[in-house]
Amino acid sequence: MRPPDPSPLRLAPSEALKLRVLADARGHPVAPRADRLVPGLVRAALAATAMVALLMLFGGPAHAAGRPTASGAWILAGTVALAVTATWLSLPAGRSMLSPARGQLLAVAIGVPLLVGAWLVLWHSTYADPFVRVGVRCFALTALTAPWPFLVLAHLGRRLDPRHPSLAGAALGATSGAWAAVMVELWCPLAVPDHVLAGHVLPLAVLALAGAAYGTLRLGLRRIR
Amino acid sequence: MQAVLGRVAPMTKVYGSRDAAASQTLADQAMERYADGDEGAFGTLYDALAPRLYRYVLRRTHSVHLAEDVVQQTFFQMHSARGSFVRGAAVLAWSYAIARRLVIDASRRGGRERLRAEGPGVEERSTELAADEALALKEEERAARRAFDLLPPALREAFQLVKLEGLSVAETAAVLGITPGMVKIRTHRAKLALQRHLAGTAPEGEGSPAGPAPPAPEEAEVDATPIERGMTS
Predict the structure, then answer these.
(1) Which domains does chain B possess?
(2) CA-nearest residue of chain A to B84?
(3) Contacts of B90 in chain A (CB under 8 A)
(4) B79: nearest CA in chain A?
(5) ipTM
(6) Where would a tag sit more exposed on chain A, N or C end, judged by fewer CB atoms within 10 A?
């Protein structure tokens, strides 16, 4: 004979649960909603300033002097368009607390590094590279400039992703990499495939992975107690 | 076949569209007020959402303790996001998405426990029925439960949110992170699978093509539907 079950299956939550929920909220006070637009704009301005300062520290656009102006303009325009599109695709749409669909985020995380590389290599045949470099400095410039747009994007995001935090973080990482790539394209005149792979695509892939780690740690749900 | 399909639909209606819309509006308004600093609105938010979330989690976990824990955690997450809540955002889909993730996390941690007790509402109703009717009802519940459990997880999840929880296709898409078109496809496939299964297991005269016409969804039993009972027993 089976002993009676101590907890019969109720079809409605108990009154004690409500008391616990309200007590949780009282025990962990959270400030009400504040305007996010002004802080967001301030962050964006600071990030842009920091990125430009870093670019100038590396030598500025003059470093890309050996590249034809038309090719440089097309490369830059394509990279800016990619960064804008990636930003639009990786942030929550309109009035929603939820990040975009999984496929969309995955497309950004994987597509941005590949498209940046493909776009550069496409222009490789239009001019002769002025010099040869492995890509270490391009990698470094990307790594130094990417965290700034990432801070802005993380602020513009909803800070909580219950569905796929790693993917949301990866998309943010790749998008911030795309903005960093804009700075790098202003500076780097090279489009040879080996250099593009090591100095332009690899850092974006690393940023996507770092973003995924950030998403797992910071954007996912955290249990109380 | 049509009769079986008709039988599935009312069995799975838990929230009428009017109830769902009312609780959704109430929740949206309460969360807006809470985000703006009205401390008392959190209780209203709880009253509007907790019963739905609790039943949703209970259906997935079959555990009262786990259901209460997930609901508690869900509200805490919503409370934590108070300061960053987007003006005009839909609370219902967001809360379901949080609860769903917490259930997945709990099942990954091995916290899934099954309690086999039945709800008091089910017991009361069963004792009022004649023995053969009660037996037929039990059989129907088991069949519904089996059919539902046999559904692939992706189909089951979409079907549960749309048909049992009363979420719209767009809300379900937001909860699951897929496109509305995919939600429609999954729900339709789940319905077909249930239809096939129930057609094969339905007792004679009930739900068979020659059987009586099914009740309209609005007239369906709300508290103790066969699929619901099947899933919580």
Answers:
(1) 2-15+131-232 (1.10.10.10), 17-108 (1.10.1740.10)
(2) A33
(3) 95-97
(4) A25
(5) 0.79
(6) N
